[in-house]
Design brief:
single chain, three-stranded antiparallel beta sheet, alpha/beta
């Protein structure tokens, strides 16, 4: 993406009084962040109902642009990446969420649009049971889908256990940070963070350099952990905590939420047990439970021989419908975002077409906004 567009987008996030939703509305209306700055002085003529607060926010942009330029220098110097909302490498699942960050800063080589992405979250004061469950689950998942990207928050407890176990099993893992990429918090997880970057994983944040890891930042980063994944798995949680906030956000984003049960008197299991009891989460005990909940094919099972889908089986399809059918051929399933990318059909239109195809028995909807052919 054009460097100036990245700088302009970063600057939008630094304008006082603008806010994320207003900034996104401006970008959608104007077509780009650069256009917002180019026409900031006549914004009222373009958006007649623009509020005085919005006009005031755009009146003085010098400081925001200077900060953005300094951030861009840091990004280029450290060979990092800045992914704006309209970058093709931006996590497309997260982009669906209304409160998705305008810019994400990343380090590493992880594919943030991997075919399968799960988040694993839990308490910072996990028990030996929680660690064992997390380790066994990831090792088990590797048997089925070793290319699954595992996302967590690099915090103490279940988070760091998930990252380290993924590394031990040769799986990609991404840590979502509550601060900029100029530091690592907690500092004792620095080596693990470096290993993640060098082993096809990485670090991700919406925060620029010199950002203090304050409590509110950890809460806000949870929406990224929830939104960029197909499913959120809670390993251990007390009755309150960040992992339950992540699970709640995942539900709001229409993601699957799964939880491991624990002993009824264990404080660290109360949150998981409550999620399961209230039917907000599916009970999970192993990786195969995840596959069943998500509708993912079990690659270890010998599948019956099936005839390839032939184009003439669906003579009445429109060109767009046929494009969707063709992109689903010879694959187990695909996420709706990937279908939109492969067919070059807008996301909203793809969703409508998939609904029609599902009603006609041509495709089947799976968990996590994934689809496959029925034949």
């Amino acid at each position: 993406m054009d460097t100036q567009e990245i700088i302009s987008t970063i600057a939008l996030t630094k304008l006082k009084g603008l806010g994320l939703l207003n900034a996104r509305t401006l970008m959608d209306t104007m077509g780009s962040a650069s256009e917002v700055f180019a026409h900031r002085k006549d914004i009222v003529s373009i958006i007649p109902d623009a509020s005085q607060r919005l006009v005031a926010a755009l009146a003085d942009t010098g400081s925001a642009l200077k900060t953005a330029e300094e951030e861009m220098e840091f990004i280029e110097e450290k060979h990092l990446k800045a992914l704006t909302l309209y970058d093709e490498n931006y996590p497309q699942r997260l982009k669906e969420c209304e409160d998705a960050p305008l810019v994400l800063y990343s380090c590493g080589t992880a594919d943030l649009n991997s075919q399968r992405i799960i988040s694993i979250v839990g308490t910072r004061k996990c028990s030996e049971y929680g660690r064992e469950v997390c380790q066994n689950f990831i090792a088990d998942l590797k048997r089925y889908y070793p290319d699954t990207l595992i996302v967590s928050g690099l915090a103490y407890g279940i988070d760091i256990c998930a990252h380290r176990t993924a590394l031990d099993n040769g799986m990609s893992t991404v840590g979502v940070l509550a601060h900029g990429l100029d530091t690592i918090y907690p500092s004792m997880h620095r080596k693990t963070a470096a290993d993640m970057v060098h082993q096809q994983g990485g670090l991700l944040t919406e925060y620029t350099t010199h950002t203090t890891p304050e409590k509110g930042n950890f809460v806000r980063r949870n929406r990224i952990v929830a939104g960029m994944c197909d499913a959120c798995i809670v390993v251990e949680s007390s009755q309150r905590g960040g992992s339950l906030i992540t699970a709640e956000l995942a539900l709001e984003y229409n993601r699957e939420v799964l939880a491991f049960p624990g002993r009824v008197y264990d404080e660290c299991s109360q949150g998981c047990n409550n999620l399961i009891r209230s039917q907000q989460a599916t009970l999970i005990t192993c990786a195969e439970d995840l596959l069943q909940a998500m509708g993912w094919k079990n690659p270890l099972e010998k599948a019956p021989r099936q005839k390839a889908v032939q184009q003439d089986l669906f003579p009445d399809l429109t060109d767009e419908e046929r494009a969707i059918v063709n992109t689903l051929k010879n694959v187990d399933d695909k996420h709706v975002n990937q279908i939109a990318i492969d067919t070059n059909i807008p996301y909203a239109r793809v969703s409508m077409l998939l609904f029609d195809l599902e009603m006609n028995g041509i495709v089947k909807a799976l968990g996590g906004a994934r689809y496959r052919l029925t034949h």
